[in-house]
Amino acid sequence: MTFVAKKCYYFDKPGAENSADAARFAVERARELGIKTLVVASTTGTTAEVFHAAMKGSGLRLVVVTHVFGFAKPGVWEFSKETAATLRAEGVTIVTGTHALSGLERALSRSPKVGGGSRTEAIAEALRKVVAIGLKVAVECVLIAADNGTIGIEDEVIAVGGTATGADTVCVIRTANTANFFDLQVREIVAMPRVR
Length: 196
Hints:
Pyruvate Kinase, Chain: A, domain 1, alpha/beta, 7 strands, seven-stranded mixed β-sheet
């Protein structure tokens, strides 16, 4: 039987204060595995800037996945337009797509006329509660980026999510499209909050 030992980092608590360390751990693992792409969740652009700075000169590709327009307020994109312009000018890819693990399902479950949960939301809640909120976010961002053709399917990427703000969960994921969700594989958890 063969095996490999790797470092896994556990943050004392979730949150944005872990972003710089998460970025460092993500770049470190990408180099170890020869992975070329980091997929990072960022709502306003702050986390994207942290990762972009940590990746400078690394030769790695940064794909930032944002909330959809209207996530917090109808018709509004929470991501800073100035930050988006700066990042794009530096070669960063920014993807905005419908949340793969909620989207229309959330509208139905929130509706007083329809109500109730869905299988999609059950999957999201299991990832959120059983492992880490950031794992659900990282998985969802990989699905969104794959569905937009920004990353290939069956590639390994470093995927990063967080709890509310910032980044606190780093993992290695073999990608898939949403329609083939069960082909997606979380192959490594590099970092996560120990307590949620």
